[in-house]
Amino acid sequence: MSLFRISSAFLVLALTPAGSLAQPTPPQRPGAVAPSDRMDNPAEPESQAPRTPAATLDRLFQRLHDARTPEEAKGVANLIQRRWARSGSDTADLLMTRAQQALKAGQTDLAIELLDRIVSLQPDWAEAWNQRANALYLAGDSVRSLLDIGETLKREPRHYGAMMGLGFILRQQGDDKAAMVAFRKALEVYPEFEAVKKAVDSLRYEVDGRET
Fold first, then answer.
1. Cα dihedral angle (78, 80, 86, 92), rounded to 10 degrees?
2. 111-150: per-residue pLDDT in tens?
3. Are 38 and 82 in contact, with CB atoms under 8 Å apart?
């Protein structure tokens, strides 16, 4: 069995229920999250009671799941992505900014080098792994991109962007059934994710039709 098949099978298993669980931006793998915007929405109401970052993120994910329109969901998703963009390290944040600039300039190798340093500095930062997965995908290295998506999901199992990226890579490799698993898992977290809804619709006959 090839390394690709092993890594993709592992990632899909991790997504099953039995598993755990806009300014111009650089080029993106489908589902990548650009971490350049770190300003919270000033209209977002804040409770007087203090919340931990984890509790605030949990609350936002609940709102994302319960959103009734794509517009409402997109606003909540933006808040989640802004929180994902916070590493807790000024050095890592600066390096991430430089990596994003490198990607925008088409300097993919430089971006990967910078992201390697970020991952070494902040190995628990899920978005660092997700951004490196994006850069590796753009460099044509789908296998390593898949591995970094797996690292992203270990650290943030609700990362719908990583799930979407996984689905698109698997679909490009011809594994439509596994891609559908990833897309549907993303929709469990973010039901109004329009790009993923379209991907599911385009695959439904091919995958579900074969199973009936």
1. -70
2. 999 999 999 999 999 999 999 999 999 999 999 999 999 9
3. yes
- 4 class by beta-carbon count within 10 Å (0-12 exposed, 13-18 middle, 19+ buried): middle
Pair 155, 21: CB distance under 8 Å: no
State the Cα–Cα distance between residues 21 and 157, nearest whole angstrom. 7
The pLDDT tens digits for 33-71 are 555 444 445 455 544 555 798 999 999 999 999 999 999
What tokens does 185 get? 């898992």
- Picking from 181, 128, 164, the residue whose alpha carbon sits closest to that of residue 19 is 181
**Residue 129, burial from CB neighbour count under 10 angstroms (0-12, 13-18, 19+):** buried
The per-residue pLDDT of the chain, averaged, comes to 84
Question: How far is the C-alpha of 191 from the C-alpha of 15, rounded, in Å?
Answer: 16
